[in-house]
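fold description:
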Amino acid sequence: MQNDEVISVIIQPVEPVNKQMIQPFLFIAPSKRMGRGVFTQALIEADTVIEIAPVIVMNAADRQKLDETLLHDYIFEWGEEKNECCMALGYVPVYNHSYTSNCEYEMDFEAQTITIKTKQPVQAGEELFINYNGNWNDPKPVWFEDKKP
């Protein structure tokens, strides 16, 4: 091919199999509760999807190894039998726990994603929380001492 030749390429739009996203008004900042947290710069209405994150799924043997590391606090039980685990990408590992969380998460085993959705309106500047038990209002104790605000 000579330098003066032009290559013509036609790009066909393709619908993505897994849609991932983080709303642009979310940000990570220091939290009064623990280390860092996820916050919003804008008012968010109830039932708004604010993040869809891909996950890396690991088998039961890998989970046992991870349970012996600091990553234990950032992985999620995974699969119908909950014998696997996953590491969520995006902001998901940074959401702090609350028994009265303002968000919930949903796992899609087929698409290998975790979706975060608000359960109530969230004001600009407010921190976003999930309940690590899986249900947004589950009062069952978690594996660490919960630092209330």
Helices lie at 60-66. The chain has a mean pLDDT of 83.
